[in-house]
Amino acid sequence: MRVVARAMWPTTEPLLLSAGLASGMRCLDVGCGAGDVSLALARIVGASGSVNGVDQDEIKVQFAREDADRERLNNVQFRASNVEQLDDDAEYDLVYARFLLTHLRDPAAVLRRMMRATRPGGVIVVEDIDHGGVFSHPHSPALEQFVGLYNRVVRSRGADPEIGPKLPGLFREVGLAELHVSHVQPVYIDGEAKQIHRITLDNIAPALTAAGFATDAELEVLTRALDAFLTRPDTLVSTPRIFQVWARRP
After folding, report:
1. Are the CB atoms for 131 and 162 separated by under 8 Å?
2. Which residue, among 4, 14, 5, 1, has the nearest Cα to 244 in the 3D structure?
3. Are 233 and 171 contacting, i.e. CB atoms less than 8 angstroms apart?
4. φ/ψ (deg, to 5) at 76
5. How far apart (Å, rounded) are the C-alpha atoms in residues 156 and 68?
6. Of 30, 150, 227, 250, whose CB neighbour count within 10 A is largest?
7. Of 244, 243, 203, nearest in space to 33 by CA
8. Any idea what the Cα angle at residue 192 is, between residues 190 and 196, rounded to 5°?
9. If we measure between CA atoms, which residue out of 31, 54, 53 comes closest to residue 40?
10. For residue range 104-139, what is the model confidence (pLDDT) as tens digits?
């Protein structure tokens, strides 16, 4: 997650600033993970603002708290809670979620809770993926296989790995209008971000084998093939397409 956070911040920061993020604002980061965006928000809103981060993973939340203490950021707090039970009411100037809705069975329900947490006139900002849009040059059968496996395991859990282009429809469904929509897709020739898909494969391997989508032996072959492709200096690899949507609560 730290690799993803470092890779995504150069496109997330301008999105948040274009949505009106400024000093003194009160912000909520929904599905904050280890708190990388929450901490960045805290730096931007400053001592006159505040940030709350919420995630259901207590271990990640504890990492976030430790990082906040290390940086002496007193304007950010974290809590471990299921985002599907978010009950904040009209408290925040800006509510944000990145790569969260794609993992949920009922993303519209959580988006409604995010809207409820936003004060009237406040901003709801969401970034999420179209995972099928991953590409490479030259074409990599190993990467294509990984994308297929990832999409399959996410769908098996009732979630949507290609939710990105559906975000405007979800915003309208919950009653948001005057949408702002943009799209980014970073591409890497080297560095740690080029390994995002390889790292993701390691993380989802237990789910793949448990569901019977691949054996350990098959994943070992796929891992070697991905490593061979990603370490080549002449290859390019993209992230998924990332859709960025924001709107104000009426």
Report:
1. yes
2. 14
3. no
4. -130, 135
5. 36
6. 30
7. 203
8. 105
9. 53
10. 999 999 999 999 999 999 999 999 999 999 999 999
Q: Please tell me whether residue 26 adopts helix, strand or coil conformation.
A: strand
HSE-CB of 197 using CA atoms within 13 angstroms: 34
In this structure, what token pair is assigned to residue 242?
């990332």
∠41-44-50 over CA atoms, to 5°? 60
Place of tokens 């084998």: 209
Q: Can you tell me which residue has the tokens 């207590």?
A: 58
Long-range contacts of 156-162 (CB under 8 A, 24+ apart): 156/211, 156/213, 157/103, 157/105, 158/105, 159/102, 159/103, 159/104, 159/105, 160/101, 160/102, 160/107, 161/102, 161/129, 161/131, 161/132, 162/129, 162/130, 162/131, 162/132, 162/133
Instruction: Tell me the per-residue pLDDT of 23-64, one tens digit each, with 9 for 90 and over.
Output: 999 999 999 999 999 999 999 999 999 999 999 999 999 999
Q: How far apart are CA 133 and CA 117, in angstroms?
A: 32
Is 0.90 topped by the overall pTM? yes
